[in-house]
């Protein structure tokens, strides 16, 4: 993949607890310069970043229920609604991991549907499953429920748990959702070879904070 092709799959990300305006400004400017499809930043910075990205074609993404997913559906819904009002066009929400591990379909669906209703299409909704904490059966169930709730993507990880994206998880999620949903590989992707491996496994979006470093290894 060329630099330009790969850049169009990358959500350039800054989500750590120390992420302030300087860091947000940096990822926005880098996204504009390198042609990344989106930036993914904390919700508190969305309204401000909107002006930085206006007219650039870079999409503005934020997170909901981050990083553990244990907010109530009502809180996640409010967070999503506020994010969209502030200018986010993509929302990455963390699933209720505990409910998913308990195989509580109704609770997981209520959680997912609350956010989907608060952030209706054309807002892009990505559901973070936190695969490192799940069995394969739980990953499949999470992906199926995300599709049932009307999500647009399933995503491997927050990047703040016990593990990040793996080729095996990406392939499993792609097999589960087929062509109905996108698959976002996120967490621990730091170089070109790893990013390409994720794409070959079925990812059509990459979440990374080392996006510029990843592109440095790509051919023109």
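^ structure tokens above, recovered residues below v
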């Amino acid at each position: 993949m060329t630099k330009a092709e790969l850049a169009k799959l990358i959500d350039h990300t800054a989500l750590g607890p120390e992420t302030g305006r300087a860091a947000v400004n940096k990822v926005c400017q880098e996204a504009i310069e390198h042609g990344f499809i989106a930036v993914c930043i904390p919700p508190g910075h969305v309204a401000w970043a909107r002006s930085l990205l206006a007219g650039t074609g870079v999409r503005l993404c934020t997170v909901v229920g981050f990083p553990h997913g244990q907010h109530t559906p009502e809180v996640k819904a409010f967070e999503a609604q506020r994010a969209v009002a502030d200018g986010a066009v993509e929302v990455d929400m963390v699933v209720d991991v505990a409910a998913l591990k308990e195989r509580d379909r109704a609770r997981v669906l209520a959680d997912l549907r609350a956010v989907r209703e608060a952030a209706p299409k054309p807002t892009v909704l990505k559901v973070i499953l936190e695969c490192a904490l799940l069995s394969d059966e739980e990953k499949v169930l999470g992906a199926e429920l995300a599709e049932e709730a009307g999500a647009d993507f399933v995503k491997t990880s927050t990047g703040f748990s016990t593990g990040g994206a793996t080729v095996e998880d990406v392939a499993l999620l792609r097999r589960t959702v087929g062509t109905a949903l996108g698959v976002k590989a996120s967490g621990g992707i730091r170089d070109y070879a790893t990013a390409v491996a994720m794409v070959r496994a079925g990812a059509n979006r990459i979440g990374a904070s080392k996006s510029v470093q990843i592109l440095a290894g790509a051919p023109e």
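The mean pLDDT is 97.
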